[in-house]
């Protein structure tokens, strides 16, 4: 029998029972309870003698929650080629180190001398990020990539203000991650978009036309979100610097070039790196993340405070004295737990392992691209004649004639047990499928995913209904995605409340 996920919604009305529905009613209370009451610090008036708990045996409880846990698809479940997001495997060792009691039980208000180990981790992580990027100064405070961008954009703004320059325009290529436009706007800049050339790269003549004495800087992603390396990066850097602007690098995803290229050699002034992407800390559902920001020497005084420093005697301290700091961007020191995982990852890989991340992730992406672009109906729009880097974008426009969209394809992939890639992004590619296998995938994983794509392409031609109703095997079928993000129902209690408001006659 084929395994089917636990269900909350179903055409056949077979729904996953709640623990209360499973309950046999009887409830066994351990005799130790009376003993425990003596030690419990709960005030008398807050104690209850009766609890509305379901009556279940331990295996019933274990199985119920294991089934529910299987509703959650993660990188431990199977392939997860979510382009731009770098859903790479999160080594369990990192998790274990981050969960060490000595790491978990420290408090951000503890005196410096009692948290030397934590400061050392932050210091060493910053040092390693500097070695990887060539940018000598880092802050680990921002809590996400987008937050790092905002931090960077604020630094750029303050820098120009300090120089008495009225520069209020930020240049962002159209292929950029959506957060770039938002961060620049949030920092008070007017966003100037520039279109790609036919290779999907920055159109240099459009860039030259866009710069002026109002240019504050440019935000660039390289390889860009089409997975193509901007080989004219030095020219781009010259144009921006020549106009008096600063070059910001969106390094959310450094997988393709890590250990291979220094950002400083590309003329980058300021960059953020997502510790929760490239550096293996897990992410999803909005956090927790860490968007470390690195800067060149001339911008070091602008970083958020505090920064961790090392004294001559080997001890560490927090430095609040940066003269031009943009201030704090987050409470305390950022998401420390995420930093530990990134630190452990880098320590484990070392300078020999790190370039292999780039090599294997690029090799995997090119292997997948080579086979997937051969599937009839699938097409490459940009960079046709070039190898991709860590990710690639194909268009599924060719299936429109069968009435099948990228969304239908994506949903059907779930039935094959793999997570769909990023879809409809970047916007410059119609019916986009943005795929990033990462270095975690084995040849078997790659072939498995490619085979699923091939089979779905066949289904699209021969059995379109199957795709239009997909997924068939998951807990939830097609969501109203806009409503799911605007009106999320995140608990059983919320669900019940909304259902009772709607006078629900069934679970649906
Ligand atoms: C993920 C990503 C971001 C944003 O990072 P968050 O941590 O999600 O805020 C920015 N740029 C690129 C290219 C990304 O892939």
TrEMBL record:
EC number of the protein: 1.4.4.2
Reactions the enzyme catalyzes: N(6)-[(R)-lipoyl]-L-lysyl-[glycine-cleavage complex H protein] + glycine + H(+) = N(6)-[(R)-S(8)-aminomethyldihydrolipoyl]-L-lysyl-[glycine-cleavage complex H protein] + CO2
InterPro entries hit by this protein: Aminotrans_V_dom (IPR000192), GDC-P_C (IPR049316), GDC_P (IPR020581), PyrdxlP-dep_Trfase (IPR015424), PyrdxlP-dep_Trfase_major (IPR015421), PyrdxlP-dep_Trfase_small (IPR015422)
Entry's Gene Ontology cellular component terms: cytosol; glycine cleavage complex
Record-level GO BP terms: glycine decarboxylation via glycine cleavage system
Domain Aminotransferase class V, residue spans: 164-286
Residue stretches making up the Glycine dehydrogenase C-terminal domain: 358-463
GO molecular function: glycine binding; glycine dehydrogenase (decarboxylating) activity; pyridoxal phosphate binding
Coiled coil: 443-470
Alphabetical keyword list: Coiled coil, Oxidoreductase, Pyridoxal phosphate
Cross-referenced NCBIfam families: PRK04366.1
Protein's name according to its UniProt entry: glycine dehydrogenase (aminomethyl-transferring)
Protein species of origin: Candidatus Methanodesulfokora washburnensis
């Amino acid at each position: 029998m084929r395994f089917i996920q636990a269900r909350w919604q179903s055409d056949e009305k077979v729904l996953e029972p709640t623990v209360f529905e499973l309950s046999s009613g009887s409830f066994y209370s351990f005799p130790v309870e009376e003993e425990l009451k003596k030690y419990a610090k709960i005030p008398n008036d807050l104690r209850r003698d009766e609890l509305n708990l379901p009556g279940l045996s331990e295996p019933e409880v274990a199985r119920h929650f294991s089934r529910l846990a299987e509703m959650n698809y993660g990188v431990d479940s199977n392939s997860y080629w979510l382009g731009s997001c770098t859903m790479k495997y999160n080594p369990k060792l990192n998790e274990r180190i981050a969960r060490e009691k000595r790491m978990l039980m420290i408090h951000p208000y503890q005196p410096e001398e009692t948290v030397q180990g934590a400061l050392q981790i932050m210091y060493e992580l910053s040092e390693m990020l500097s070695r990887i990027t060539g940018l000598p100064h880092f802050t680990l405070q921002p809590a996400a990539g987008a937050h790092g961008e905002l931090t960077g954009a604020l630094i750029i703004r303050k820098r120009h203000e300090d120089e008495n320059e009225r520069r209020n325009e930020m240049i962002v290529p159209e292929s950029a991650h959506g957060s770039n436009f938002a961060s620049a706007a949030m920092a008070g800049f007017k966003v100037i978009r520039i279109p790609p050339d036919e290779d999907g790269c920055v159109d240099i003549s459009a860039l030259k036309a866009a710069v002026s004495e109002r240019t504050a800087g440019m935000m660039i992603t390289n390889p860009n979100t089409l997975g193509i390396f901007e080989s004219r990066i030095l020219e781009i850097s010259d144009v921006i610097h020549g106009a008096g602007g600063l070059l910001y690098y969106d390094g959310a995803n450094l997988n393709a070039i890590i250990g291979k290229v220094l950002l400083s050699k590309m003329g980058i002034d300021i960059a953020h790196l997502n510790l929760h992407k490239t550096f293996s800390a897990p992410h999803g559902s909005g956090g927790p993340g860490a968007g470390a920001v690195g800067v060149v020497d001339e911008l070091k005084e602008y970083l958020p405070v505090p920064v961790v420093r090392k004294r001559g005697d080997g001890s560490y301290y927090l430095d609040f004295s940066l003269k031009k700091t943009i201030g704090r961007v987050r409470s305390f020191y950022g998401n420390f737990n995420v930093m530990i995982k990134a630190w452990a990852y880098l320590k484990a890989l070392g300078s020999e392992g790190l370039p292999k991340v780039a090599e294997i992730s690029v090799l995997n992406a090119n292997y997948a691209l080579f086979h997937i672009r051969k599937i009839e109906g699938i097409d490459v729009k940009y960079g046709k004649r070039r190898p991709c880097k860590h990710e690639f974008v194909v268009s599924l426009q060719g299936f429109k004639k069968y009435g099948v969209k990228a969304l239908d394809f994506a949903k059907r992939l779930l039935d094959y047990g793999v997570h769909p890639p990023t879809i409809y992004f970047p916007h410059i590619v119609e019916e986009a499928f943005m795929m990033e296998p990462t270095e975690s995938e084995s040849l078997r994983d790659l072939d498995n995913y490619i085979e699923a794509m091939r089979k779905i392409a066949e289904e699209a031609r021969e059995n379109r209904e199957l795709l239009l109703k997909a997924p068939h095997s998951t807990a939830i079928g097609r969501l109203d995605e806009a409503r799911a993000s605007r009106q999320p129902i995140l608990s059983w209690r919320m669900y019940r409340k909304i259902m009772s408001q709607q006078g629900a006659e069934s679970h649906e």
